[in-house]
Write a structure and sequence with these properties.
The complex is a heterotrimer of chains A (81), B (276) and C (131). With 81 residues, chain A is an all-alpha fold. Chain A is 83% helix and 0% strand. Chain A has one domain. In chain A, helix 1 packs antiparallel against helix 2 and helix 2 packs antiparallel against helix 3. Chain C is mainly α. Helix content of chain C is 70%, strand content 0%. Classes of the chains: A mainly alpha (81), B mainly alpha (276), C mainly alpha (131).
């Protein structure tokens, strides 16, 4: 595995995680969580774990983000922290 | 609270980093994780089960008991969502919005329980209605059969390529969720009803446990697929491969039904009339 | 000094995973909003999965699908050429269980919102204690 690519994607993963936790809009939080899931999938395929990457792509970046957006739709979008 | 939280987090992080001093180097072939039982799985998977994808053979054959309870956990999560959220049609008057299609006028009906479900010139709209985009509707209608075909391919080809039961089941569920998002939640419930969904969810777990019980009834251990060789008229190695395929089908069905169920319950908060 | 540097380079992966775990833990402990806590829980779970998958990697190993030629006889597979598949199997279960947990957690959040009309933890607690 190519360590430069690995390091770049790891840095992006940390940025996406910090962003998802800090942002004040819950819909933005859900979308950033989807981006975090997708970057995790890329990381695992760099490491050679193709089954895990496939599952995370379909489950995390697909269905999980939809559940979050549906829940935010049913409750509220604004938050104070 | 934030300062206490930050302190706890930093302390835990420092302890964990201190513990990494004992870890083996990254990528070490002689690390403890890679030495005890996994070389046996890699070397013997092809000759004992005729399945090249070692992850699938370990998941469904060598560690099949684990996967059966995982499928049960998914089924339990679907049931839990259903119990928490589902409100059967409430007794009082319910308010609905209808739109007259030729003119575009929206009317609000205060007690809509007696309105027939199919009207000639009125369509029922959600509370946050936007004109349904023709491009999205048509594109999704064309794409959904191919998504389902790909999902069936992923389930069936899990022996030779990355994939298997879970991934294919989630993609199948996602195809119905795409239908619910692009058209209407009611349109998707017309096609994949609530009762059929619940039955499929249980049927998936039943197929998995049933395969195990079938092996038990043929005289060998639970989930020992070599017992299926007389039933399928093949040698025990191929019988293990077919046994893996059967349980992957069960897992795929259970996961698909649970994903649809969780989406239906969460996006409509239990009422099953308006969705995303 | 060079030993510290070589040590850091060999194990920087572990440190980044610990950072991710701590971000998730921080979100679960300190955030007031329930949906943020759920996001923190999921970040923690995926960081743990990343950790397990990374301990199964081997230098120079390829993906754990045995190469078999069409029609050629099966040759013995050497375990050192393939990366360790056992953590992958355990983490497949973990991912699917995490999405099931996410569904139930979001259902609980919707129920709490229906009852208290808010998702902030301090407002919910003051409503419970005030009544």
């Amino acid at each position: 595995m190519i360590w430069q690519l690995d390091l770049a994607v790891l840095a992006l993963v940390v940025v996406a995680a910090v962003g998802a936790v800090t942002i004040r809009d819950l819909l933005g939080c859900a979308i950033l969580f989807g981006a975090y899931s997708f970057l995790m999938c890329a990381l695992w395929s760099i490491m050679g774990a193709v089954d895990v990457a496939f599952t995370e792509a379909s489950v995390g970046a697909g269905v999980s983000t939809v559940f979050f957006v549906a829940a935010v739709f049913r409750t509220t979008r604004r938050t104070k922290d | 609270m934030k300062k206490i939280g930050l302190l706890i987090v930093i302390l835990t992080g420092v302890f964990l980093i201190y513990a990494t001093a004992d870890f083996p180097r990254w990528g070490d072939p002689a690390s403890p994780a890679s030495t005890h039982v996994s070389p046996r799985y890699i070397e013997k998977s092809m000759e004992e089960t005729e399945v090249p994808n070692v992850v699938t053979s370990v998941l469904a054959d060598y560690r099949g008991y684990d996967t059966m309870f995982e499928t049960t956990v998914i089924f339990a999560a679907g049931v839990a969502c259903f119990i928490l959220l589902r409100i059967p049609g409430s007794g009082g008057p319910e308010e609905r919005l209808y739109r007259h299609v030729p003119t575009g006028i929206t009317i609000r009906v205060k007690d809509a329980r007696n309105v027939p479900s199919r009207l000639a010139q009125f369509e029922r709209i959600d509370t946050l209605w936007v004109p349904h985009d023709l491009i999205i509707k048509t594109a999704c209608r064309i794409l959904i059969p191919f998504i389902q075909l790909f999902a069936l391919y992923v389930i069936a080809h899990g022996h030779h390529s990355p994939g298997g039961g879970f991934q294919g089941g989630v993609i199948l569920g996602a195809s119905i969720i795409v239908m619910a998002m692009s058209h209407d939640l009611r349109a998707s419930i017309e096609r994949m009803g609530e009762k059929v969904n619940a039955l499929l969810c249980a049927a998936g777990v039943f197929i998995y446990a049933g395969t195990g019980a079938l092996c038990l009834s043929m005289g060998r251990n639970f989930l020992d697929y070599a017992a299926l060789a007389p039933l399928l008229h093949c040698d025990p190695v191929m019988a293990r491969s077919y046994g893996i395929f059967m349980v992957e089908i069960g897992v795929g069905i259970a996961v698909m039904a649970t994903m649809i169920r969780i989406y239906d319950n969460v996006s409509s908060a239990g009422k099953y009339d308006e969705g995303l | 000094m060079s030993q510290v540097i070589s040590e850091v380079l060999a194990k920087y992966n572990y440190w980044i995973y610990i950072t991710l775990m701590m971000i998730g833990l921080y979100a679960m402990i300190t955030k007031n909003n329930l949906v943020k806590k759920i996001v923190g829980m999921n970040i923690f779970q995926t960081a743990i999965i990343l950790y397990y998958v990374s301990i199964g990697s081997k230098k120079g190993g390829t993906i754990p699908i045995i190469e078999h030629g069409h029609g050629a006889g099966t040759h013995a597979a050497r375990a050192a050429e393939y990366i360790n598949p056992l953590p992958h199997v355990l983490m497949l279960t973990a991912i699917v269980v995490s999405v099931a947990t996410l569904g139930v957690a979001l259902a609980l959040a919707i129920k709490i919102y229906n009852r208290y009309q808010t998702l902030e933890e301090d407002e919910i607690l003051s409503q419970i204690r005030g009544k």
